[in-house]
Amino acid sequence: MNGYGGTILRVNLTDGKISKEPTPAQLARDFIGGRGFGIYFLFKEVPKGIDPLGPENKLFISTGPLSGMMAPGGGKCDWTTKSPLTGGYADASMGGHFTAEMKYAGIDTIILEGISTKPVYLFIDNDKIQLLDASSLWGKGAIDVEVELKHKYGEEYQIAAIGPGGENQVLYACINHDFGRQAGRGGVGAVMGSKKLKAIVLHGTKSVAVADLESYRKAGLALYKACKDAEGLAEWSRYGTTVVTSWCNEVGALPTRNFSAGSFEGIDHINGQAMRKEIVITDKGCFGCPSPCGKYSNMKRYNTQVEGPEYETIGLMGSNLGIADIQSVAEANRLADDLGLDTISTGSCIAWAMECYEKGILTKADTDGLELKFGNTEAVFTLIKKIAHREGKIGDLLALGVKQASQEVGKGSEKFAIQVKGMEQSAYATHNATAMLLAYMTCDVGAHHNRSWAITYDLQVGREKVVPEKVARIIWLQNFRPMFDVFGSCRLQWVELGIDRELYCPLLESITGIKRSWQDLEAVGNRIWNLTRMYWARENDSFGREWDYPAQRFYTEPPKTGATAGQITKFEDVQKLLDMYYEQRGWDDNGLPTQATLETLNLTALVV
Amino acid sequence: MLKSYLGDQKEVIVEAGYTIRETLISLGMNPDLVAGIFVNQDQQSKDYILQDGDIVNLLAVIGGG
User: Fold this and answer.
1) Would residue B65 count as lying in a domain?
2) Would the CB atoms of A250 and B33 count as touching at under 8 Å?
3) Looking at the 3D structure of chain B, how many domains does it have?
4) What residue of A is the nearest CA neighbor of B63?
5) What is the CATH number of the domain that holds B12?
6) Which end of chain A is more exposed for a tag (fewer CB within 10 A), N or C?
7) pLDDT tens-digit map of A172-228
């Protein structure tokens, strides 16, 4: 099958059985790859109502037709599972080089099922596939494990590993790869840890067939030329995602002290300029990337190094914790990476705990003696370690994520748990930005910005406006942007460099032999969107409108300071946004796809 | 998007001595729509005061994160 590895690899960790099946051509045609394969398998193979950390959950790792190919940023793979953090659909997109190696090993999807009785790692070298003893690796940091396995097998082997966070099933544990890339959100690392799978070692040297080699070369080069000619290439490459840090602060979008404000007085100490001045050594890119957003950094004060921090971590572990020091933010990033924790969720949980402490809801008796005031850097470092090891009352509490932690603690702390559907909100404050608020409300993994981003759009149209055009914009982005996660390539070349997305169509056709326009591709995106929605509905009997509500803070507590001081979205506007969104999506008043919509999308057989 | 404020030109010559913010406003731009200011390749704030010979690149973030 052109453009694909050709194989689904099934690894049963309970009985150690390893088997291969050919990738169905119809699956590739209908769902293309990446997260499309992920949701298909999740719906089909994981029974309703299972424990996400039990033996019946599965973890699906999928490449796409652009993975490992001549496509800018063709270095992404998708990890899909039932989320232990939210109880719903989770997928996480991981960059680096893993996906290319998977493709060259002839694999389109790895299905990890069952639970091992002892720690193991999965070794894949083309057709040599084994489960090997990982008892000497268990307990070690993810970065240390990667170094050790690369020394053992060779630099050309790609490693994905969990840290103690995943081993201890922290509900937002992540999976690390290439020293600073993660399958970050939704607790995919906890699922891997529940299976006692410490790492995957991967190497592939097979060829990949394409439908039309000459057109492939032409189309691939056209995309690279578009990147090279893009205005802003130098700036995006030099600063990475930190380009936006000061601007977010200016427009009130920078999460500050648990999203109580959108502007931070210490911005000059944590922005892109501070990074380049104090810590950045060099740029770092993923497979085939012409615009390396990664930055290797050296923190002299701590004598440590990290890949990062990027914007999200600066937001959630910097301003959101009241920390005005880029070296400290980078060190917090390093700790989270090595221990295997999603920096966004970790930062949000710690910020919530800090607010609880400052309000007297949590005391030193609850925090194992830690003084959890905003800005206390040492407390943050200690707490990250406690969370990863579920150590002490506070470590174990925060390992649950902010929704469950606040439900356990009560005393009104739920009101400032900044999450949707159980996932902590990523780094855009949305006190008065109704399109972006809707993006967070309706994202299909919880409060994440990866599907749709609309900060500039809100500023152009009028941030407080509640109009059908904003809803249409969010829906369009949700059908379109995640297609990069289906293709197995990075979205930042379109997102940041603004290259013409039409260039992707001839490339995909030259690889797969299937001609698809963006209208066709967005139709697949819409199908996937409705399927992930139905997955939530299947797994949660109460699923509906209330699950789409934003964090209360955004409609009850205007910031006191900063660019959005005094501004808030009214709850009636939250409801109006949902009314319009459901109507435009073809869903009922409770936010569930109607039967007519499911029939139009040819999903009725799958969702039964 | 930003070029639309400059009659679709890619470049324009402006006077030194004013802040970036003041200059953007004088060009009819909403400063909030400009996410990145790069003066001689280094990122600067909108309070930076333009000097003779400075080359300034402006970045708007349309697609986001």
Assistant:
1) no
2) no
3) 1
4) A495
5) 3.10.20
6) C
7) 999 999 999 999 999 999 999 999 999 999 999 999 999 999 999 999 999 999 999
